[in-house]
From TrEMBL, chain A:
Presence of the UniProt keyword Nucleus in the record: yes
GO MF term set: DNA binding; protein heterodimerization activity
Entry keyword set: Cell cycle, Cell division, Centromere, Chromosome, DNA-binding, Kinetochore, Mitosis, Nucleus
Gene: CENPW
GO cellular component term, pick one: inner kinetochore
Quaternary organization: Heterodimer with CENPT; this dimer coassembles with CENPS-CENPX heterodimers at centromeres to form the tetrameric CENP-T-W-S-X complex, which is a subcomplex of the large constitutive centromere-associated network (CCAN, also known as the interphase centromere complex or ICEN). Interacts with NPM1.
Domain of life of the organism encoding this protein: Eukaryota
CDD domains assigned: HFD_CENP-W
Matches recorded under Pfam families: CENP-W (PF15510)
Function, in words: Component of the CENPA-NAC (nucleosome-associated) complex, a complex that plays a central role in assembly of kinetochore proteins, mitotic progression and chromosome segregation. The CENPA-NAC complex recruits the CENPA-CAD (nucleosome distal) complex and may be involved in incorporation of newly synthesized CENPA into centromeres. Part of a nucleosome-associated complex that binds specifically to histone H3-containing nucleosomes at the centromere, as opposed to nucleosomes containing CENPA.
Subcellular location as annotated: Chromosome, Centromere, Kinetochore; Nucleus matrix
Database matches in InterPro entries: CENP-W, CENP-W/WIP1, Histone-fold
A GO BP entry: mitotic cell cycle
Protein name, entry field: Centromere protein W
C-alpha cells in the first residue's frame, strides 16, 4: 500500500484510506448500524470525491477573485454550492 | 598356575594388586573368545556364590572376584570360586572406594565390556562396576589412560580402607552396578546431588526477579509524609517522586522563560498568584521530585520579584473590589510563603534564598495586606493547607506553580487543578472573589477539558485533517489555515449527512448493514455515478490499486473471482 506518493507539487499525499477512523466515526454516529467490509473504502472514495469537488470549486472562486491564495470565503462559497448541488441532485 | 597357589590366602590388597599388575585390556577378550563357555560357567558359579557369601576376604574366590573379566578368563576360575566371588570382592572394594575413583573406571570399563560376549558382558558390566578399579588397566589404555593412573593409586589407597566400611557406600555402589554408564552415572550422581540445588538457586532469583512495580504516587500520603519530615531535604523530597522528575526538569526552563515577562503578565501574575496557591499544593509534591533546588530557588526568586512587581502594580492598577480580591490572593500567597518559611519546613536552601529575597519582595505587599487580610488569609491558607498541603514544603511548590503556568505536563495539571480548584473555591470563596477565580478557571479549564475529550477529538481531528490535506492537494494552490478549518467543518457535516443517507438506504432495503450497493446509490444521487460513469470507473481513477483489487471483482486463475460475489 502506497503510504505516500511524491507529487509534482512537492507534497506527499497519503493514499491510504483511514479505514479505522472511518469505521469508528460511523460507529459513533450510528451505533446500531454495521459497515460491510469494503463499504468503508467506498465511503472513503465518496469523501475523496467530495473533497475534490470542494477544492475545484474553491479554486475556481479564488481564481475568479484573482487571489493567489484560497481564502475561507472561497471555501465557504464552494461548500454552499457543493452541498446545495448534492441536495438538489438527490431530489 | 602359580597364581592359584599363591592366592589361596590372598588379602584383598594382594588380589587387587595382582589385578592391577596383570592389567591387560585384551586378555579378557582373547581369553573369552577362546573360552567363552568356560567363562560363562565360571561367571555363573561366581554369581551364585556371590549370593551366598558376600564377605570380602576369601581365598579362592578372591582372585577371581577381584580380577576383572580378564581374570575370570584365567584358568583359575575353574576351581577357585567357591568362597568369595570376585564380584563380591570387587563390590566391596567399590563400596569402600570413593565414588570418584569408581566413576572413572566405570566409564572406562563400560565400553570395553560392551562389545564382549553378552552374557558375560552383563555380569562383567555388573562386575565391572565393582570391578571398576580393577579393570582400569584393561579398557583403559584405549580409553582413558590418564584416569587409570590416578584410579590405580586411588584403588590402592582404597584397598586399605576397603576392609573398614562396607556398608557405607552400598547405595552408591549399587547404582553404579546397575548402570551401564556406571562411572558416568555415578559421576552424574555426584553432580546430580549438586545440580538440583543449583537450578533451584537459579530459579529462585529468576522468580524473585520480578519487575519492581511502580506504585502510583499517593498525593495524600505523600503530602503527609512531606509534612512529617520537617527536615525534608531537597534531595530527598525531590528524589521521592521519580516519575515526575523529567517533566519538572523540562519545566524549569519554561518557567524561567515565562517569568521574565512580568510587565504584561501583571494580570496573569495575579492569576498566577491565585492559581499558584491552588496549584502549589497539588503539584508541589510532584514537582519536588526533580532534584533541582537551584532552579527552584532561582525560579522562586524570580517569582518573588515578579510578585513584588505585581503587588504594587496590581494594587495601583486595579481599582475597586477587584483590588481586594486580587490582593487577597496575592497576599495569601505571600502569607503562605511567609508561613512556610517560618515553619521552616521548606528546603533549607530555598529558605535561604527566599528568605533573602522573599522578605524584600514580599514584605512590602504584606505590609499592605497583613493587617487586613491576615486573619482571612490565614484562614484561607489553613483551609487550603490540608487540601493541598504541600505548602509545607515548598518553595518548590511555589516555584512549580509558575512552572505550571508556563508549561506543565497536562496530565498532572488537570488532576491537580481539579483537586485544588474544587476544594479551593469553597474556602477561597470567602476571600477570593469570583474574579480571580474565573480567569484562572477559565484558563485552566481548557487544559483539563482538553484531556478529557482528547481521545475523541484528536483522532477525529487527525482524520479530518487527512482529508484537509487532500483538499489542499487537489486545490493546487496555497491555502490559509482557517480555510482548512472550514474544510474540516464541511467534511464533518458531509460525513454526518452521509451516515444518515446510508442509514436510510439500508433501512429501505430492510438491512442493518451498509453494503456497497448503498454506497453506489449514494454516489449516484450525488451525481458522481451516472450511466456513463460507473462506480468501477471512479474506483479505478481515484483509489490505489490495492483497494481496487478489493472492490472490483476480478477473475483469477482456477475459475475463481475475487472478491467473491
Amino acid at each position: 500500500m502506497a503510504l505516500s506518493t511524491t507529487v509534482s507539487q512537492k507534497k506527499q499525499i497519503k493514499r491510504r484510506a483511514p479505514r479505522g477512523f472511518l469505521k469508528r466515526v460511523f460507529k459513533l454516529q450510528k451505533p446500531h448500524l454495521r459497515l460491510e467490509k469494503s463499504s468503508d473504502l467506498l465511503v472513503h472514495l465518496s469523501c475523496l470525491l467530495f473533497v475534490h469537488r470542494l477544492a475545484e470549486e474553491s479554486r475556481t472562486n479564488a481564481c475568479e477573485n484573482k487571489c493567489g491564495i484560497i481564502n475561507k470565503e472561497h471555501v465557504l462559497a464552494a461548500a454552499k454550492l457543493t452541498s446545495c448541488r448534492e441536495g438538489h441532485k438527490e431530489e | 598356575m602359580a597364581d592359584h597357589s599363591t592366592h589361596r590366602e590372598p588379602t584383598p590388597r594382594t588380589l587387587l594388586r595382582r589385578v592391577l599388575d596383570t592389567a591387560d585390556p585384551r586378555t579378557p577378550r582373547r581369553r573369552r573368545s577362546a573360552r567363552v563357555g568356560a567363562q560363562r560357567a565360571l561367571l555363573e558359579t561366581p554369581s551364585s556364590r556371590r549370593l551366598r557369601s558376600q564377605t570380602k576376604m576369601t581365598a579362592g574366590g578372591n582372585p577371581h572376584g577381584t580380577k576383572s573379566s580378564g581374570r575370570l578368563v584365567h584358568a583359575q576360575a575353574s576351581g577357585h570360586l567357591e568362597e568369595q566371588t570376585p564380584r563380591t570382592l570387587l563390590k566391596n572394594i567399590l563400596l569402600t572406594a570413593p565414588e570418584s575413583s569408581i566413576l572413572k573406571p566405570k566409564s572406562v570399563v563400560k565400553p570395553v565390556p560392551a562389545p564382549q560376549v553378552v552374557p558375560p558382558s552383563r555380569r562383567e558390566s555388573s562386575r565391572g562396576s565393582p570391578e571398576l578399579q580393577l579393570p582400569e588397566p584393561e579398557p583403559p589404555t584405549t580409553l582413558v589412560p590418564a584416569l587409570l593412573a590416578p584410579g590405580r593409586r586411588k584403588q590402592r589407597l582404597r584397598l586399605s580402607v576397603f576392609q573398614q566400611g562396607v556398608d557405607q557406600e552400598l547405595p552408591v555402589s549399587q547404582e553404579p552396578r546397575g548402570n551401564a554408564d556406571a562411572s558416568s552415572l555415578t559421576s552424574s550422581l555426584n553432580l546430580t546431588f549438586a545440580t538440583p540445588l543449583q537450578p533451584q538457586s537459579v530459579q529462585r532469583p529468576g522468580l524473585a526477579r520480578r519487575p519492581a512495580t511502580r506504585r502510583a504516587v499517593d498525593l495524600g500520603a505523600f503530602l503527609q509524609d512531606l509534612r512529617d519530615t520537617s527536615l525534608a531535604s531537597p534531595n530527598i523530597v525531590l528524589e521521592e517522586t521519580q516519575p515526575f522528575s523529567q517533566p519538572l526538569v523540562g519545566r524549569s526552563p519554561g518557567m524561567r522563560l515565562s517569568l521574565p515577562l512580568p510587565s504584561h503578565m501583571r494580570a496573569k501574575d495575579t492569576e498566577r498568584a491565585t492559581s499558584r496557591k491552588t496549584r502549589s499544593s497539588g503539584p508541589a509534591p510532584r514537582n519536588s521530585s526533580p532534584g533541582k533546588p537551584a532552579q527552584f530557588l532561582a525560579g522562586k526568586a524570580e517569582e518573588v520579584n515578579a510578585l513584588a512587581l505585581g503587588f504594587p502594580n496590581t494594587s495601583s492598577s486595579i481599582s475597586g473590589p477587584g483590588v481586594e480580591p486580587l490582593q487577597d490572593g496575592v497576599g495569601e500567597e505571600a502569607e503562605k510563603r511567609m508561613e512556610e518559611e517560618e515553619k521552616g519546613l521548606s528546603l533549607s536552601e530555598v529558605k535561604e534564598a527566599t528568605g533573602a529575597r522573599g522578605p524584600s519582595g514580599v514584605e512590602e505587599p504584606e505590609g499592605y495586606m497583613e493587617v487586613t487580610e491576615a486573619e482571612g488569609s490565614l484562614g484561607a491558607v489553613e483551609a487550603e493547607e490540608p487540601e493541598g498541603s504541600s505548602e509545607d514544603e515548598e518553595t518548590s511548590g511555589r516555584t512549580a506553580s509558575p512552572e505550571l503556568v508556563s508549561s506543565t505536563p497536562e496530565f498532572l495539571q488537570p488532576k491537580q487543578l481539579h483537586q485544588l480548584l474544587e476544594p479551593a473555591p469553597p474556602p477561597g470563596a470567602a476571600i477570593l472573589s469570583s474574579e480571580p477565580l474565573e480567569p484562572v478557571s477559565a484558563r485552566l479549564h481548557p487544559r483539563p477539558r482538553a484531556i478529557g475529550p482528547r481521545p475523541r477529538q484528536d483522532p477525529y481531528k487527525t482524520g479530518l485533517s487527512h482529508y484537509a490535506k487532500l483538499f489542499s492537494f487537489y486545490a493546487k494552490m496555497p491555502m490559509e489555515k482557517k480555510a482548512l478549518e472550514i474544510v474540516e467543518k464541511c467534511l464533518d457535516k458531509y460525513f454526518r449527512h452521509l451516515c444518515d443517507d446510508l442509514e436510510a438506504f439500508a433501512a429501505h432495503a430492510g438491512r442493518r448493514t451498509i453494503k456497497p450497493e448503498d454506497l453506489e446509490l449514494l454516489m449516484r444521487r450525488q451525481g458522481l455515478v451516472t450511466d456513463q460513469v460507473s462506480l468501477h470507473v471512479l474506483v479505478e481513477r481515484n483509489l490505489p490499486l490495492e483497494y481496487r483489487q478489493l472492490l472490483i471483482p476480478c477473475a483469477f486463475s482456477g475459475n475463481s473471482v475475487f472478491p467473491a460475489q
